[in-house]
Amino acid sequence: MAKKKKEVEVVEEPLVVEEVVVAEAPAPKPQPKPTLVVEEKPKNTWEIKDRVYYLTGNKKPLSRSIRSTGVYWFDEEKGYERELKYCENQRTCFVDEMKGDQRLSHIIFRNGALFVPKNKTVLQKMLSLYHPHNGSMFYEYKPVEIAANELDILEMEIEALDLARSLDIEFIEAIMRVEIGSKVSEMSSKELKRDSLLFARKNPTLFLELAKDDNVQLRNFGIRAVEMGIIKLSNDQRYFIWSSNNRKLMTVPFDEHPYSALAQWFKTDEGMEVYSNIEKRLN
């Protein structure tokens, strides 16, 4: 009788795979790039162009030479005076920067003018920047600056003329009295208006200054009061009095113009009352 084989049940255990965790190394921080410091060279602001120089005072001699050697310019950065010399074979006008032979050249104005072409930069810089006689003996012709100055003058003339047209005749009389004196008392309103326009065109700066000065009108007010016989100025010009009763109004301070002092006095409390009284009598 055959024996039965004993079956053995084989149980397969699950395969356990251990996971190996590898720690990642931290990413390196980006290093800042080194900044390259570049020294900025000073910009050359000198404009390369032809330049013309004129003698001051509208002088136009056939020839006039100015010193091209033995002159000095104070260098604030270096702290001392530096000798100047114009040599056509040098690239600088400073003696302490020259190299090699120094062939001195003359600087001559013909008929009051000197034209320096743009290729002679050394001479231009010496005349425009460093020469001590620049502005006193000669000057550089600058049409742009001249045009700007002329434009400012024209605009000021327009402003003065507009103001002269809009002012009252009393104010115009006050301004013109400063210009032509007591003659304004004999002029008609049209003559005053005409002369004020001519004055504004001839000297716009002074006209605008007088128009903005309130003392001008007060001074004219006092002069009119004296001319009309309302108040009087003493013979020694030391005080003002009422013409009606010779009562003293105010004393003129020493070494001061009587009508200027009267104009200032009109601004005080007592002077304002007198001003109102005189104004009623003038009207």
Report what the structure shows.
This protein is α+β, with helices and mostly antiparallel strands and 283 residues long. It folds into three domains: 91 residues, no CATH class; 64 residues, no CATH class; 60 residues. The protein is 37% helix and 16% strand. It is built from eight helices and ten strands. Strands 6-1-7 form a three-stranded antiparallel sheet, with helices on one face. It has a three-stranded antiparallel sheet with strand order 8-9-10. It is elongated.
SSE layout:
Layout: E1 51-55, E2 63-66, E3 69-75, E4 80-85, E5 107-110, E6 113-116, H1 121-130, E7 138-140, H2 143-166, H3 169-180, H4 189-202, H5 204-211, H6 214-227, E8 231-233, E9 239-242, E10 248-251, H7 258-265, H8 269-282
Antiparallel strand pairs: 1-6, 1-7, 2-5, 3-4, 8-9, 9-10
- Poorly predicted ranges (pLDDT <50, ≥5 residues)? none
Spell out the helices and strands N to C: EEEEEEHEHHHHHEEEHH
Total beta-strand segments: 10
Count of discrete domains: 3
Number of helices: 8
Strand order within the widest sheet? 6-1-7
- Please give the largest β-sheet: 3 strands, antiparallel
Q: How is the quaternary structure best described?
A: single chain
Overall geometry comes to elongated
Range of helix content: 25-40%
Notable traits:
elongated; 8 helices; 3-stranded antiparallel beta sheet; 10 strands; alpha+beta; 283 residues; 37% helix; 3 domains
In short:
With about 280 residues, this protein is α+β, with helices and mostly antiparallel strands. The protein has helices at about 120-130, 145-165, 170-180, 190-200, 205-210, 215-225, 260-265, 270-280; strands at about 50-55, 65, 70-75, 80-85, 105-110, 115, 140, 230-235, 240, 250. The strands form four sheets. The protein has a three-stranded antiparallel beta sheet with strand order 6-1-7, covered by helices on one side. Strands 8-9-10 form a three-stranded antiparallel beta sheet.
